[in-house]
């Protein structure tokens, strides 16, 4: 029960007026919060903190309402809500009583010492609450809080997206909503989009596929995650390029796979004899434009890799993340187009071509796997975005997609040149440039004595976003130094001044 003392309630309740006085002191009458909500919260907390002890009888609704000068219905509704939540129970003809549902009664009073010990141990080891995989994921996370501006890699210019065209196409579906587009997706995605995408990939990327082989996802991360779940088990070995995209490293590590970094050279992935002697379950590659260095896998290396996968039954996951944007030559044919054994899973996304927030990507899987991937997609992720997929299908079918690619290829090519000119004019030879013929970024190499991670942090403090090249390698301490500079989302007139700001930071570390 309850006693009044200097604003708190303690001990057993002697009179209803004690509780009424305590509540009256705390009820705000300024209208900022409903009286019902305040009264419910005060009584709830009094019960949880045992200031209203188990078995205590509450005043009648009429009496408490009179003493608080509030409507009786308010008190009645609060008592009913507390009863529904298990805090009190009402006995007909007797009154409303606080229920005894303390933790001691639930677990048994003889377990109190054990619970206290466990609670103390938990407090001492809060840093270990995550699993080993979870701790590794968080400790190596690469996602940045900043996703726009100079010189954020991998981000397109979303301000040039043809929003009016998209809105017009989208409005057609909202004027006459179709139930099948507004519920969960099944069958691997919207049929017309899969058909249109198959036609585009065959023409533009030399991908050999039927619409049924295409699985629509939310992007490359989900595509790879789905492939890993269906094709590999925990502990299986996966080859990754060294360096590689941090996002893929995170997906693979959190799936419990053993990652084996394979170095790249001028011809792409370059496994050693020792590597080849132990076939992996999966091989993740970016053959058309290695991420982040930019080299193209040679035909000889492609044929070797395909033959090796055929012989060892390894699966190749081909990440074709931004192959549309080449500036010195036509886009290159896909690795999947050379595959005759059905060992390549081809993944792509519309995020870098249109805008990242669209969250639509795709896989092209061998025919024998298509149905299984479609089932797993629905089972694991409960896919949707039917309206967006329908709009995208129309956008591609009506030619807006290819027109947008042409415009952006020209714009990005100009920005790439402006950035290269800014580098040469300000720093010249000290900063050789890699991967400048394709994509949305280039790599400015730094002397191996420079701390690219420190430069990255200082540049961010100066308002410039970039990424340290060393962080993309399996062993950053032994990795070459450099900076990834994204130019796609930087207006032409801002490239020179923005690089000037970055150069001020870089020059302090060039000696």
Automatic annotation (TrEMBL):
One of its GO terms (molecular function) is DNA binding. InterPro entries: Aminotransferase_I/II_large, HTH_trans_reg/aminotransferase, PyrdxlP-dep_Trfase, PyrdxlP-dep_Trfase_major, Tscrpt_reg_HTH_GntR, WH-like_DNA-bd_sf, WH_DNA-bd_sf. SUPFAM superfamilies: PLP-dependent transferases (SSF53383), Winged helix' DNA-binding domain (SSF46785). SMART domains: HTH_GNTR. CDD domains: AAT_like, WHTH_GntR. Keywords: DNA-binding, Pyridoxal phosphate, Transcription, Transcription regulation. Residues 33-101 form the HTH gntR-type domain. Pfam families: Aminotran_1_2, GntR. The keyword Transcription applies. In the C-terminal section; belongs to the class-I pyridoxal-phosphate-dependent aminotransferase family. This is HTH-type transcriptional regulatory protein GabR. It comes from Pararobbsia alpina. The gene is gabR.
């Amino acid at each position: 029960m309850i006693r009044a003392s200097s604003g708190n309630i303690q001990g057993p309740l002697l009179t209803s007026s004690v509780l009424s006085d305590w509540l009256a002191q705390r009820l705000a009458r300024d209208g900022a919060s409903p009286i019902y909500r305040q009264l419910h919260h005060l009584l709830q907390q009094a019960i949880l903190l045992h200031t209203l002890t188990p078995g205590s009888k509450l005043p009648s609704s009429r009496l408490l309402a009179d003493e608080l000068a509030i409507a009786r219905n308010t008190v009645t509704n609060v008592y009913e809500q507390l009863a529904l939540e298990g805090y009190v129970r009402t006995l007909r003809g007797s009154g409303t009583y606080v229920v005894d549902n303390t933790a001691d009664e639930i677990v048994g009073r003889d377990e109190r010492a054990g619970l206290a010990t466990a609670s103390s141990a938990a407090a001492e080891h809060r840093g270990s609450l995550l699993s080993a995989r979870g701790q590794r994921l968080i400790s190596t996370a690469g996602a940045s809080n900043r996703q726009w501006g100079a010189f954020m890699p991998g981000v397109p210019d979303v301000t040039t997206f043809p929003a009016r065209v998209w809105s017009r196409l989208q409005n057609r579906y909202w004027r006459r909503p179709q139930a099948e587009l507004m519920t969960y997706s099944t069958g691997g995605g919207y049929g017309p989009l899969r058909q249109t995408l198959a036609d585009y990939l065959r023409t533009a990327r030399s991908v050999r596929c039927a619409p049924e082989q295409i699985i629509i996802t939310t992007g490359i991360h989900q595509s790879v995650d789905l492939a890993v779940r269906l094709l590999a088990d925990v502990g299986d070995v996966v080859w990754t390029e060294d360096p590689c995209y941090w996002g893929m490293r995170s997906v693979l590590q959190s799936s419990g796979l053993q990652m084996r970094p394979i170095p790249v050279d001028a011809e792409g992935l370059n496994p050693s004899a020792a590597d080849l002697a132990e076939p992996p379950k999966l091989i993740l590659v970016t053959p058309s434009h290695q991420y982040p260095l930019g080299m193209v896998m040679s035909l000889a290396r492609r044929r070797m890799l395909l033959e090796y996968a055929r012989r060892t039954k390894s699966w190749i996951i081909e990440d074709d993340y931004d192959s549309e944007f080449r500036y010195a030559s036509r886009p290159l044919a896909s690795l999947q187009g050379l595959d005759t054994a059905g060992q390549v899973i081809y993944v792509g996304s519309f995020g870098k071509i249109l805008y990242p927030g669209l969250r639509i990507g795709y896989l092209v899987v061998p025919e024998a796997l298509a149905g299984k991937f479609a089932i797993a997609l629905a089972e694991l992720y409960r896919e949707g975005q039917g309206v967006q997929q329908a709009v995208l299908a129309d956008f591609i079918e009506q030619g807006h997609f290819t027109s947008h690619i042409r415009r952006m290829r020209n714009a990005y090519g100009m920005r790439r040149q402006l950035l290269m000119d800014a580098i040469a004019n300000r720093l010249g030879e000290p900063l050789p440039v890699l991967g400048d013929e394709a994509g949305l970024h280039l790599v400015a190499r730094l002397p191996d004595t420079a701390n690219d991670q420190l430069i990255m942090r200082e540049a961010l403090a100066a308002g410039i976003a970039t990424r340290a090249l060393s962080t993309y390698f399996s062993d950053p301490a032994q990795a070459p130094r450099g900076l990834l500079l994204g130019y796609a989302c930087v207006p032409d007139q801002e490239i020179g001044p923005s690089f000037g700001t970055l150069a001020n930071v870089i020059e302090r570390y060039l000696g």
